[in-house]
Design a protein that fits this description.
Layout (H helix, E strand, L loop, with lengths): L12 H63 L2 H19 L4 H11 L4 E10 L6 E8 L2 H13 L3 E12 L8 E10 L9
Antiparallel strand pairs: 1-2, 2-4, 3-4
């Protein structure tokens, strides 16, 4: 007679349902892994986008720096620097209200004889406190030129008179020939008092 012994331990309730819970747990774990992978892929894509936009911003910044350097070189050219100096000087005079173009024109006009006229007036140099102004004068004869020069040199409003050019204009059928004179002088800007 043969005797069979069953040495296996009878499965308890937990072991019986463990197989049933493994499948849903694997599904949930798989879903969590897929979700984490999706977040990782999204983060990697976002990181690439940020790097691309950063590279684009850096290239734009470099282009703007090059443009700024070009503009600075342009501004530093002597003709622009001179214009900036003159503009700053005029702005300074305007802000201090010490320099009036109307007063300057009136003072020059008082020095002109009746047979001469002021043809042009410009700021030749913006050196403070006494700017250098340039006059273009048209006169009928040399006596008018002499009178104007004597009046200009004798005036307390002007100093350091320098003749830049002198020539003749006209007589081409449009009228009598006139003397054209271009000269510079320092304008002695009147000092403002505290009451002004």
């Amino acid at each position: 007679m043969k005797v069979y012994w069953n040495l296996a331990i009878a499965p308890d309730r937990r072991e019986r349902y463990a197989l049933a819970w493994v499948i849903p747990a694997l599904v949930v774990a798989s879903l969590v892994l897929v979700w984490l992978a999706a977040i990782g892929v999204h983060d990697v894509r976002r990181s690439h986008q940020i790097r691309a936009s950063l590279a684009q911003a850096r290239s734009q910044d470099a282009a703007l720096r090059v443009k700024e350097a070009e503009l600075r070189q342009e501004i530093d050219r002597p003709e622009y620097k001179s214009m900036i100096d003159k503009t700053e000087f005029v702005n300074q005079l305007v802000s201090q209200r010490q320099f009036s173009l109307t007063d300057l024109t009136f003072k020059v006009s008082k020095l002109l004889p009746p047979s001469a006229r002021l043809d042009g007036l410009a700021l030749a140099s913006a050196s403070a406190p006494n700017p250098e102004v340039q006059f273009a004068v048209m006169a009928k004869d040399e006596e008018s030129v002499e009178t104007f020069l004597n009046n200009l040199e004798g005036s307390s409003d002007f100093a350091d008179v320098v003749i830049k050019s002198q020539g003749f204009r006209g007589s081409g059928g449009a009228g009598p020939q006139q003397i054209a004179l271009v000269l510079t002088a320092k304008y002695m800007v009147p000092v403002q008092t505290a009451s002004n």
